[in-house]
Amino acid sequence: HGHTMVRAPIPPPNMTVHSLHIFDRKGKTLFSKTYSQPAAMGQQQLRQTSQGPADEDPVDEQRKLVFGMLFSLRELVGSLAPEGEKGGLHSIRTGASTLHNYETLSGLRFAMYTTNDVGGADASSSSRRSSAAAESNVSVKSALKHIYTELWVESVIKSPLYRPGEMSTVGQSSSGSGGGDAFDIRSTNFEKKLDAFLQSMSW
């Protein structure tokens, strides 16, 4: 059986966004899309070398690990924040990429992987570079907020078919537990608007 919405059309080689994942408050993947060639190749290799059960998608398992990491680090950051202040986790940089995080009040989590030159890479090289990196980081945070407030809310939440708690998740069929059909994000124009928005970004 195939897994739904694991899409990797031939992306532009210079795309600075590797992938975008949207999780609900319980860690279920509501949307996932791969944009860059390196990310698509990495997922393909992960599936080819997986030693897990045949009915288990290693990419889906990887997304669960991403959510778990973000959840744990958010809790850690919150515990280290000064008393009276709310700690937030905005981005995590590794040697290969940067993971940007935006969490809504309702518990939705938008996680976007980008190249390291987006959103604060090498910020310590010089004050001039640091300023540019800071602006880029702000723009990524603003972009994730825009994706939620202007694209997700307008296309998904305001859809006449949307029913809270009855949304199909990535890697599962669209049939809901109540016997009816769960709301499928693919029935909206969210993905089309998202693609256009990310392609328009200067980074």
SSE blueprint:
Blueprint: E1 17-23, E2 29-34, H1 37-49, H2 58-80, E3 91-93, E4 98-103, E5 109-114, H3 127-157, H4 190-200
Antiparallel strand pairs: 1-2, 1-5, 3-4, 4-5
Helix pairs in contact: 3-4
Average predicted confidence as pLDDT: 78
Q: What is the β-strand count?
A: 5
Helix/strand order:
EEHHEEEHH
User: Kindly, what is the distance between the CA atoms of the first and last residues, rounded to a whole number of angstroms?
Assistant: 37 Å
Taking pLDDT < 50 over at least 5 consecutive residues as the criterion, the unreliable ranges are 1-13, 120-129, 173-179
Structural class: alpha+beta
Strand content: 5-15%
- Fraction of residues in helices? 25-40%
Strand order of the largest sheet: 2-1-5-4-3
Largest sheet: 5 strands, antiparallel
Radius of gyration: 18 Å
